[in-house]
Specification:
The chain starts with a helix and ends with a helix. The chain is about 90% helix and about 0% strand. It is mainly α. It has four helices and no strands. The chain is flat.
Length: about 140
């Protein structure tokens, strides 16, 4: 738990730094951005491994058994979070493109409102599928 509390401000600071680097359009800024992305990926993987390991090596047998039994539950919860996050990001991208296309079509032919909303609604359905997968994973945990 402490690793999460330490890592979140570090990740937020790194994210803010990469946003500033994106504003500059130089080759060195791109290299720095790629190095920062690699460092964030390594830090995220280390944090994931720490979270999945289940605690310190000095735990007794009862604590180790409890940590192993909760390890699969925490892996299911992490999987559920990844499912929701990925589906939400995918739905956001899909709604952005279909919404822009729907508005462009509606500006020329307003009678296409119903068809355009159906297509945007189908794009939003991607997020619902992610929620369904997350509920199934949480039920298995």
């Amino acid at each position: 738990m402490i690793a999460w509390l330490i890592a979140l401000p570090v990740l937020l600071a790194a994210f803010a730094a990469t946003r500033r680097l994106l504003r500059r359009r130089t080759r060195s800024a791109l290299r720095t951005l790629l190095a920062a992305d690699a460092a964030l990926l390594a830090g995220g993987l280390a944090l994931l491994l720490t979270a999945l390991s289940g605690g310190s090596a000095q735990a007794d047998a009862a604590t180790a058994a409890a940590a192993q039994s909760s390890g699969s539950g925490s892996a299911a919860l992490i999987g559920a979070a990844i499912a929701v996050a990925g589906a939400s990001i995918g739905a956001a991208i899909a709604v952005a493109y279909t919404g822009a296309a729907a508005l462009a079509a509606l500006s020329e032919r307003p009678e296409l409102f119903g068809r355009a909303m159906v297509i945007v609604g189908l794009a939003e359905g991607i997020a619902i599928y992610g929620l369904v997968v997350a509920v199934i994973l949480i039920g298995k945990a």
